[in-house]
Amino acid sequence: MFKILVVEDDAALNRSVCAFLRQNGFNALGCTDAQEAYDAMYGGDIFDLIISDIMMPVTDGFEFAETVRGLDSEIPILFMTARGDLDSKRRGFRAGADDYMVKPIDLDELLLRVSALLRRAGIAANKRLTLGELTLDAEEHTAYLSGEEVPLTVREFNLLYKLLSYPRKAFTRSQLMDEFWDSASASGPRAVDVYITKLREKFSGCDEFKIVTVHGLGYKAVTK
């Protein structure tokens, strides 16, 4: 059974989220602040995923995520917060978040996102993603189609691996820029378009997926 840590200082919401997760087959533990979460995480409990608020007393969610990410680069972190502005989202992803939900949250959507993050974590642990005749090897940073290597740059590989790890999830150009371009880069968000065009060309003969443009937003991968 997957174990999920819920860090939320609103006690009623904390209880609701934990109860909902338990009803859907997860083992959920609620903490009301970062220190309580640290005690749970490093006192012997092993968690598969963290759901965290941002606006918490003493240690906010950004600092909490940065600390966790410095100790564990793999555990999925989902922010659940009232801060829906782009700057907060950008800071959240840079702090180490894998996903971001704005309150008030829909619990059914939360369940979908949790399931997707846990699936992605399983892929990361295996270091390999396979779709039919297509295999992406994260350790080699190499793509194979029907046993033949498809030459990719590191950034092309990372973009494709990200999209295919979250099928049908749309990513904005800014999200992809924040993750795969250096903060000092002079490139604008449209640089993502250039890389997507290259990926489409290189995998034009692959029937396992398509990279679809989400107009006004960015891109998503649609798999068979």
Widest sheet: strand ordering? 2-1-3-4-5
Shape: globular
Q: Averaging pLDDT over every residue, what do you get?
A: 90
Termini distance? 28 Å
Summarize the biggest pleated sheet. Answer: 5 strands, parallel
**Count of individual beta strands:** 12
- What is the H/E string? EHEHEHEHEHEEEEHEHHEE
Strand content: 15-25%
Number of helical elements: 8
* Percent in helix: 40-55%
Structural class: alpha/beta
Quaternary status of these chains?
Answer: single chain
- Flag low-confidence runs: none
Roughly how many Å is the radius of gyration? 18 Å
What attributes does this structure have?
about 220 residues; alpha/beta; 4-stranded antiparallel sheet; 12 strands; globular
Descriptive account of the structure:
- By secondary structure, the protein is α/β, with parallel strands linked by helices.
- It has eight helices and twelve strands.
- The strands form three sheets. The protein has a five-stranded parallel sheet, with helices on both faces. Strands 6-7-8-9 form a four-stranded antiparallel sheet. Strands 10-12-11 form a three-stranded antiparallel sheet.
- The model has no long low-confidence stretch (mean pLDDT 90).
How is this structure best summarized?
This protein is of the alpha/beta class and 224 residues long. The model has no long low-confidence stretch (mean pLDDT 90).
